[in-house]
Specification:
- This is DUF2007 domain-containing protein.
- Keywords: Membrane, Transmembrane, Transmembrane helix.
- Pfam families: DUF2007.
- InterPro entries: DUF2007.
- The chain is of the alpha+beta class.
- It folds into 2 domains: 67 residues, 2-Layer Sandwich (Alpha-Beta Plaits); 30 residues.
- Helix content is 54%, strand content 14%.
- The protein contains 4 helices and 3 strands; from the N terminus they run βαβαβαα.
- Strands 1-3-2 form a 3-stranded antiparallel β-sheet, with helices on one face.
- The longest helix is centred in the last third of the chain and has 28 residues.
- The termini are far apart.
């Protein structure tokens, strides 16, 4: 058996194995349960999809085609100090307006 895919989680490995099985290639997942022993740390490279040596080339072709049609991962953009400052300013304007309204009501009576 040869490794054709290193998954970031057991879910990814099962997804790829299921894809291969739909194309008639049988295989197995190795290292799936090692993630639980590591805990919260990422277990990259431990979970692998294995297939028979004779099926390796076809499996690699199927996986490459599948990866090519996957959407690009969006990375979260960190907030800049300007956007944080703007939020604080806007919140201060609203709090100040509410405080002035309340003070005028209290002292006008």
């Amino acid at each position: 058996m040869q490794s054709v895919f290193e998954a970031s989680s057991g879910l990814d490995a099962h997804m790829v194995l299921n894809l291969l099985e739909q194309h008639g290639i049988s295989g197995r997942i190795e290292g799936e349960y090692l993630q639980g022993g590591i805990g919260e740390l990422a277990a990259m490279g431990f979970v692998r999809v294995l297939v028979a040596e004779a099926d390796r080339a076809e499996a690699m072709r199927i996986i490459r085609e599948w990866e090519a049609i996957q959407p690009a991962e969006e990375t979260a953009k960190p907030e800049t100090s300007a956007s944080i400052s703007l939020r604080i300013f806007v919140a201060g304007v609203f709090v100040g307006a509410a405080l002035m309204y309340w003070l005028l009501k209290v002292f006008a009576a």
